[in-house]
Amino acid sequence: MSAAFIDKPRLSVGQIVNMNVGFLGIQFSFGLQQASMSPIYQMLGAEGKDLPYLWLAGPITGLLVQPVIGAMSDRTTHRMGRRTPYFLIGALLCSLGLLAMPFSPTLWFAAGLLWILDAANNVTMEPYRAYVSDRLRPEQHASGFLTQASFTGLAQTLAYLTPSILVGLGMNKDALGANGIPVVTTLAFIVGALLSFTTVYWSIRRVPELPLPADEVARLRALPRGFGPALAEIWQALREMPPTMRRLWWMALFQWYGMVCYWIYIVPTLAATIFGTDDAKSAGFRDAVLLNGQVGGFYNVIAFAAAFAMVPFTKRLGAKWVHAFALACAAAGMWMLPGIHDKAWLFLPMVGIGLAWGSIMGNPYVLLAGSIPPERAGVYMGIFNMFIVIPMLIQSLTLPLLYDSVLGGRPENVIRLAGVLLALAALCVLRVPTEKSS
Question: Which residues cross the membrane (predicted)?
Answer without folding.
Answer: 12-32, 52-72, 84-101, 181-204, 248-275, 295-314, 321-338, 344-367, 379-402, 414-432
